[in-house]
Amino acid sequence: MWILGITHPGSLNGAVSLVKDGKIIAAIEEERVSRIKRAAGLIPHNSIEFVLKKAGIVKEDIEKIAVGGTGLGDDFEKYRKAGIGSGLPRTFEASSSMHSRLSNNFLKYIQINFKNAEIVYVPHHLAHAASTCYVSGFDKSIFVTTDGRGDAESGLLGIFENDTFEVTKSMRIDESLGAMYRQFTQQLGWQPSLDEGKVMGLAPYGKPIPSMDDIAKVTPDQKIQIDWDKITSIKYSSNKTDPTKDERKDIAATAQNLLEKCVLALVKNLVETTGIDKICLAGGTALNIDMNGAILESGLVKDIFVQPAANDAGTALGAALYVHKQNSSKKIEPMKHAYLGPEFDDDEIEIDIKDSGLKYRKLSNVAEEVAELISQNKIIGWMQGRSEFGPRALGCRSLLANPTDMEMWKKVNVVKDREYWRPLAPSILEESMDEYFNNFGAKSPFMLLKFKVKEEKIPKIPAVVHVDGSARPQSVSGDTNQMYYDLIKKFEEIQGVPILMNTSLNLRGVPIVNNPQDALETLAFSKMDYMCIGNYLVSRN
Ligand SMILES: [Fe+2]
């Protein structure tokens, strides 16, 4: 059965997935194809076209449309009184009232285009939970989903066992940890729902402010209490331009500390009451790598899985997997990688390069020649294979540099037009993880966990170690990305470390590169040195 997963139009990120018999065929965020950042509220035409083409099917082949949300939001109280609210049924059929909650065009579009498909709405946070639990490879786990808000909830806690979800807590809107972090982002003068990564990156420069520790707490009966007035009244001296040198660093540290304190309290209770020591995470807040690392470091759990598309894009996948499970007992395979987007062969790539007029040559040994250039401190765009699902670049749409030279931290942030103090992450050969990080035996294929770098290794990779001695590594395996693995291996032969600096292949405010044309445009408008696309190396003239 072909199932098309689509984010609800009220989601922060538009995305689509295609699932057949429990297998994820393709998944992509609409912003990658439409080139409109987040593409929220848009009908994901381009993504739908891509996934159908990838599978070689047409719209009439789709039997189920799984929507990652119900649209129950503003009318929370009304629906709660009707028995739907905080005790949301875990799934339910579309009703006429829900239809009115959807953007009219979205629903019309589905009805007109997918004549053979039944529409199933999966509550937003259940879709987040499904996106992580079904593909974690764990038979049994606890789960936590948190974000600003999705439908009438801001998160779920519960137990996943025998492919079913038992919700132990639904977080109300006023308990929203995602909204709390978002409000801090706004207080710091940054754009909410976009710049939360800056708060996380700034936090290690500062110290939590003790007088603000009461802004958020978890009560003994597991309610989250947030003092919204106190957050919105936060003031700081703004006469300095560098946030690492004024009070903002401490406010950021406070936000991070409050988030971790609350999540750890919830997780501790859940672990103690269930006796389960594995956890699955999703929801936009699970993109907070430092929080995820803190959960593992706490020792409360032995293993952790974070959905790479933890943002709302992941609900397009989770909803489809949920609907699959409602209709089939067929097992869903663990998600070992996130390479679910489009790819381009050398012929297609060469046409676009020729068209661009940029200088290029075909490489006989891509890994060897690119590794050599990176060791010479060249900054390289790297576009290979299928693009990643989710906001992290994992070696298919990446910007790569030499981690052994401290100068590259600054240089890459300049190329990307990012603040100089924001950290950059390492990609490391999977087998070397334990050698470089205090990682509690964990891998980190999706670059969503923070670890302390072993002290003796810090001088070897200074450009990818943050000010608190931590890093946010991606572990790279030859099983899932042979080309990237080979590149890092070659770099190790030249430079002595099995690590590259890896950040996303895009410029400020622009979605990550999707196709060769996007990559060439990025090269032309940036100060990076080369772009390697497939077997071609392109330089600015
Ligand atoms: Fe969400």
What does this structure look like?
The protein has about 550 residues and is an alpha/beta fold. The protein folds into three domains: about 140 residues, Nucleotidyltransferase, domain 5; about 170 residues, Nucleotidyltransferase, domain 5, CATH 3.30.420.40; about 190 residues, Carbamoyltransferase, C-terminal domain (DHBP synthase), CATH 3.90.870.20. Helices cover about 35% and strands about 20% of the residues. An eight-stranded mixed beta sheet has the order 13-23-22-14-15-21-16-20, with helices on both faces. It has a five-stranded mixed beta sheet with strand order 3-2-1-4-5, sandwiched between helices. Helix 6 crosses helix 12 and helix 7 packs antiparallel against helix 10. The longest helix is centred in the middle third of the chain and has 27 residues. The chain starts with a strand and ends with a strand. About 5% of the residues have low confidence. The structure holds fe (ii) ion (FE2). The site of fe (ii) ion (FE2) has 7 residues, from helix 6 and strand 6. The site of fe (ii) ion has 7 residues, from helix 6 and strand 6.
